[in-house]
Backbone:
């Protein structure tokens, strides 16, 4: 009888230890984030990251720009080798830049938001021919006729961003090194240098978005892309952000496009 009780005691100890380890290793259930407690762009980012309305998969799919051929664009990701569909959630001004907070679907079926810089200093400089380009498509795809808008004032960029907020746009990401021209222009030399130094950030962004079945050229880029859980991006160095100078849009309800 004593032996039976002893074996029973050992069994209870083993079971207790097993239950303890199970409970210790078991992840706590994921509690849905309450985005209603947030306001403004923080709420937009929260809703986007959590697939809440107005950023459900169905909401986004209704706004995607299709492409020609057999490519089926189903998520915010690659539209071609160096172009990405994303959704601008907000923007702000910092130093010589307009910073856009853009949401994407990731290659591992999650979502992320990253800050992308537009260099105001080169756009506002009248002594060069560099613009911020908006190509507005006549239909909800990227192969129809497009109207090109050349912006030479950063305030015009922000006016258009107000109209494009929460709409799907195609970001035309530079992924090739630019040649340094022979020029005395300080701003021109600065932008070429910045385009080249931002290449790895641009390539990293291209590598991390959903592929939409398009072959990804940059799967082995070793760079930690800055991402956001809120609209606070002040702590992120501007030099770590991808750079942008051109987008494709589809805005059928606005005569200014």
Residues:
């Amino acid at each position: 009888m004593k032996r039976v009780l002893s074996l029973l005691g050992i069994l209870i100890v083993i079971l207790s230890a097993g239950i303890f380890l199970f409970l210790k290793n078991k992840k706590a259930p994921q509690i849905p984030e309450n985005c209603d407690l947030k306001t403004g762009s923080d709420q937009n980012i929260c809703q986007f990251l959590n697939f809440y309305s107005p950023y459900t998969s169905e909401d986004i799919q209704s706004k995607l720009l299709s492409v020609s051929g057999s490519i089926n664009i189903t998520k915010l990701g690659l539209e071609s080798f160096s172009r990405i569909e994303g959704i601008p959630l907000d923007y702000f001004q910092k130093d010589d830049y307009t910073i856009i907070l853009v949401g994407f679907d990731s290659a591992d079926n999650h979502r992320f938001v990253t800050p992308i810089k537009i260099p105001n200093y080169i756009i506002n400089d009248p002594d060069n021919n560099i613009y911020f380009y908006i190509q507005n498509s006549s239909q909800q795809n990227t192969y129809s006729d497009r109207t090109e808008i050349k912006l030479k004032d950063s305030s015009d960029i922000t006016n258009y961003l107000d109209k494009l907020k929460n709409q799907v746009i195609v970001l035309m990401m530079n992924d090739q090194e630019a040649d340094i021209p022979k020029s005395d222009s300080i701003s021109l030399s600065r932008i070429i240098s910045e385009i080249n130094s931002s290449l790895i950030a641009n390539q990293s962004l291209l590598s991390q978005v959903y592929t939409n079945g398009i072959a990804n050229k940059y799967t082995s880029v070793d760079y930690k892309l800055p991402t956001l859980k809120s609209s606070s991006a002040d702590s992120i160095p501007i030099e770590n952000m991808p750079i942008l100078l051109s987008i494709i849009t589809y805005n059928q309800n606005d005569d200014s496009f």
In short: Helices lie at 2-25, 40-49, 57-61, 120-123, 154-164, 186-197, 199-208. The CA atoms of residues 6 and 12 lie 10 Å apart. Residues 2-25 form the longest helix (24 residues).
